Amino acid sequence: MVRGLAGSAGPRSQLDHLANAENAVGAEMAATNLAKMRQGKLMAGFETLLDRIDDNERREDGAATPIAEKPACPALPKTAFQAAVRGLRGHCPSCGEGRMFPSLLKPIAQCQICGQDWTHQQADDFPAYVAIILTGHIMAPVIIYMVGETDFSMEINLAIIIFLALILIGALLQPAKGAIIALQWWMGLHGFEKPVRPVEPLASDD
Q1: What separation in angstroms does the CA of 130 have from each of 51, 184, 191, 194?
Q2: Any idea what DSSP says for residue 115?
Q3: How far apart are CA 142 and CA 168, in angstroms?
Q4: How far apart are CA 190 and CA 71, in angstroms?
Q5: pLDDT class of 151 with cuts at 50, 70, 90
Q6: Which of 51, 93, 119, 202 is deepest in the core (most CB within 10 A)?
Q7: pLDDT tens digits for 1-53?
Q8: Residue 129: how many CA atoms within 13 Å on its side-chain side?
Q9: Residue 91: strand pairing partners
Q10: How large is the angle between the packed helices 80-88 and 154-187, nearest 10 degrees?
Q11: How far from 165 is each of 26, 104, 140, CA to CA, in Å?
Q12: What letter does residue 117 receive in the DSSP assignment?
C-alpha cells in the first residue's frame, strides 16, 4: 500500500514540475513580448517627435524663403526694327531672352524660352554679303588714312588692312545672320508664321 502511494505521488510531482516549467516559460515570453512592445512604442514616439521637428523646420524655411514666381515671358516685338535688334544681339527675336546661336553661325532649332521654331530660316549667304559690305564701308576711311598719312610700306599696310578686314567680317557675320533671320520671321517668309502685330490704340475725339 505504501508503494502504491509512492508510485501515485511520483507522476503527480512530475506533472507539477512540468506545469511550473511551462508557467515559467510563459512568464518569460510574456515579459519579452512586453519589452518588445514598450521598445516599439518608444521608437514610434521618437520617430513621431522627429517628424514633428522636421515639419516645423520646413514650415519655418517656407515662411522665411517664399517661393519665387517664374518670370513671365517677354512680349513679342512691336516692330521689325525691334525684332532685328534682338537677332542682332544674338537673342531670340520672338521673346528676346533665349539664345539664338548655340555655336558661331548655327541657329538654334527651337527657343528654350518661348518654343519658337527656327528651322524655317534660309539666311544662306546673305549674312556674308552684308558683313562684306559693312566691312568695306568701315575700312574705306581706315585704308585712305593708312595709305596717305602713315610711312608704312605697301606690304605692311596691306597686311594690316587684310587683318582688320578679316576680324570685322568674322565679328559681323553672326549679328548679320541673326538680324536677317529675325526679319524673315517678322515678314512670314520661308514657312515662318507671321507673328501677331500689336494693336494700335484708337485715338479718342477728345
Answers
A1: 66, 15, 23, 24
A2: -
A3: 13
A4: 32
A5: confident
A6: 93
A7: 444 444 444 555 655 665 666 666 666 676 666 666 666 555 665 566 556 66
A8: 5
A9: 99
A10: 130
A11: 101, 18, 10
A12: B
Instruction: Tell me the C-alpha distance between 114 and 72, whole Å.
Output: 10
Please state, in angstroms and rounded to a whole number, the distance separating the CA atoms of residues 60 and 56: 6
Tell me the CB-side half-sphere exposure of residue 19, using CA atoms within 13 A: 6
Q: Do 114 and 95 meet the contact criterion of CB atoms below 8 Å apart?
A: yes
C-alpha cell of 194? 507671321
Q: What is the pTM of this model?
A: 0.58
Q: Which amino acid, one-letter code, is at 124?
A: D
Q: Treating both helix axes as pointing N-terminal to C-terminal, what angle do 154-187 and 126-149 enclose, rounded to 10 degrees?
A: 150
CA dist., res. 41 & res. 57, Å (int):
24
140: left (phi over 0), alpha (psi -120 to 50) or beta: alpha
183 CB contacts (<8 Å, ≥6 apart)?
80, 83, 84, 87
The sign of the CA dihedral 167, 86, 126, 134 is negative
Determine contact, residues 167/161, Cβ cutoff 8 Å.
Answer: no
Q: How many CA atoms lie within 13 A of 136 on its CB side?
A: 6
Looking at residues 87-101, what average pLDDT do you find? Answer: 91
How far apart CA 130 and CA 143 sit, in angstroms, is 20
